[in-house]
């Protein structure tokens, strides 16, 4: 049996192939020899009989634009090695690590140290490091962006916090653009009640939690887009990516900005698509089931509350929003306003979550459950399978725009980069089935559709499901 890190030999026949590179999906077969994709064939007629998207599917390996791997400084929550293992379990073969570590990744030496840790892990999953925008992520002065570019960063972000200074944001956007790299911003205006515990609305009021209004995100997005419009006149290569957008109003701003020709992209997370603020009260239904004929259903009256309230694994920033906002995130994903799904994988040690709700660290450990949540939306008829795969592959690849990230697709003669999923299988999310050190997921105890059988990165085995 091939071991993790070794070249793979594969003969996959009568599977459902999803190729976002060509926009094609259907019955097919492929052969991998010595880690190289030797041949791809599409089946037709009687040879394709009985093969559909409910069985085994094969897609290019997923790309995550946004993960927190915690090393250095908080290895109890995650290490680069454990994070790459979790990524492979989730079907991801490229992972972008956020720089909010301790100390932050804000100098070239820290970038190179992260790359060395990835190499030492033995995982073939590619690590792409994002450098901090400001020194120490303190928002006071720019970090050495040029030096980090030479060290190989994929872009820049102060995620976990916004770049509050408009002057610094403008300078960073122009500098990053001149280097050909994107700036990924955490869009939050903290003057609108920074530190909110939940989305402002019915649920936060009933639970007595401090609310974070949609305006905190919307005003920040509006500011970022206005600055981008100014910067691109002088630096046409400037690129802005807005990460983990969670409100319909903010997504509408992006939709209009793109129609006007601004070089802006954005992503949504699986949890902002599939979950809603009802989960803080103990509901465990998907967000699309919380709306009936365009109106929000009362979770207390219709029996949706099945778990205790104040589960700290549901505390995340931006917060889980109302079902209407979740529907807007899903709609943006379907119509392409949201270029990508990014996990915002945020593992935490138990000590940081087993506290009072208002004291709990923000974040969901989500890189292993991302595909399952999207496939749940596919199963519900809310999201086409091809579009879900595009949002996990070609979408994030376009955001990065990097030559060292293979263009997702089935290309003969190239090292295989793929994920094999049993769509007919469901798997139970539990501490025992998660590879991440962070078990802080509100999905524990639930089952998700689509079991990852195999992940192959650069022709080498990254993950194989146990027999």
Protein described:
This protein is α/β, with parallel strands linked by helices and 467 residues long. It has a single domain (61-407), classed as Alpha-Beta Barrel (TIM Barrel). The chain has helices at 80-89, 108-121, 145-151, 166-178, 202-207, 215-234, 248-259, 270-274, 278-281, 323-335, 350-353, 370-379, 385-392, 394-400; strands spanning 10-19, 24-33, 36-42, 56-60, 62-67, 92-97, 126-131, 155-156, 183-186, 198-199, 211-212, 240-243, 264-268, 291-292, 295-296, 340-341, 418-428, 447-457, 460-464. The strands form 5 sheets. A 7-stranded mixed β-sheet has the order 3-2-1-4-17-18-19. Helix 1 packs across helix 2, helix 2 runs parallel beside helix 3 (145-151) and helix 6 (215-234) runs parallel beside helix 7. The longest helix has 20 residues, at 215-234.
Q: How would the global form be characterised?
A: globular
**Nearest-integer average pLDDT:** 97
Helix % is 25-40%
The gyration radius over C-alpha positions equals 21 Å
* Class based on secondary structure composition and strand pairing: alpha/beta
CATH superfamily: Metal-dependent hydrolases
CATH architecture: Alpha-Beta Barrel
Q: Helix segment count?
A: 14
CATH topology category name: TIM Barrel
Q: Proportion of β residues? A: 15-25%
Spans with pLDDT under 50 lasting ≥5 residues? none
The main β sheet shows up as:
7 strands, mixed
How do the strands of the widest beta sheet line up side by side?
Answer: 3-2-1-4-17-18-19
- Number of domains as seen in the coordinates: 1
């Amino acid at each position: 049996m091939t071991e993790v890190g070794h070249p793979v030999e594969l003969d996959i026949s009568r599977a459902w192939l999803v190729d976002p590179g060509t926009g094609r999906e259907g019955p097919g077969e492929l052969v991998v020899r010595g880690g190289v994709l030797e041949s791809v064939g599409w089946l037709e007629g009687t040879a394709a009989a009985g093969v559909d998207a409910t069985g085994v599917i094969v897609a290019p390996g997923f790309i995550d634009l946004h993960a927190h791997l915690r090393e250095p400084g908080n290895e109890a929550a995650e290490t680069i090695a454990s994070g790459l293992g979790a990524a492979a379990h989730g079907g991801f073969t490229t992972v972008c690590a956020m720089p909010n570590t301790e100390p932050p990744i804000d100098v070239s030496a820290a970038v190179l140290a992260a790359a060395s840790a990835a190499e030492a892990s033995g995982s073939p999953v590619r690590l792409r490091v994002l450098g901090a925008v400001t020194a120490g992520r303190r928002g006071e002065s720019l970090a050495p962006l040029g030096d980090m570019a030479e060290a190989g960063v994929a872009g820049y972000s102060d995620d976990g916090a916004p770049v509050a200074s408009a002057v610094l944001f403008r300078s960073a956007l122009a500098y990053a653009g001149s280097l050909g790299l994107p700036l990924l911003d955490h869009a939050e205006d903290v003057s609108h009640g920074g530190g909110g515990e939940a989305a402002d609305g019915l649920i936060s009021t009933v639970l007595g939690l401090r609310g974070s209004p949609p305006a905190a995100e919307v005003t920040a997005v509006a500011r970022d887009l206005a600055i981008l419009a100014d910067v691109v006149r002088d630096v046409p290569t400037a690129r802005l990516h807005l990460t983990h957008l969670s409100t319909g109003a903010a997504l509408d701003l992006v939709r209009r900005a793109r129609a006007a020709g601004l070089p802006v992209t954005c992503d949504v997370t699986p949890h902002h698509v599939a979950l809603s603020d009802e989960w803080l009260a103990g509901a465990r239904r998907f967000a699309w089931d919380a709306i009936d004929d365009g109106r929000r259903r009362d979770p207390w009256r219709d029996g949706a509350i099945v778990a205790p309230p104040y589960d700290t694994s549901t505390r995340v920033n931006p917060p889980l929003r109302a079902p209407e906002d979740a529907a807007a995130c899903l709609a943006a994903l379907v119509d392409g306003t949201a270029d990508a799904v990014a996990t915002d994988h945020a593992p935490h040690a138990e000590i940081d979550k087993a506290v009072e709700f208002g004291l709990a660290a923000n974040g969901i450990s989500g890189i292993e459950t991302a595909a399952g949540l999207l496939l749940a939306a596919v199963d519900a008829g809310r999201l086409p399978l091809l579009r879900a795969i595009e949002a996990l592959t070609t979408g994030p690849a376009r955001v990065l725009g990097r030559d060292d990230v293979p263009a997702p697709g089935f290309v003969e003669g190239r090292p295989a980069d793929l994920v094999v999923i049993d769509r007919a299988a469901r798997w139970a999310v539990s501490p025992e089935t998660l590879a991440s050190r962070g078990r802080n997921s509100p999905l524990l105890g639930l089952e998700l559709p689509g079991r990852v059988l195999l992940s192959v990165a650069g022709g080498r085995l990254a993950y194989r499901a146990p027999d």
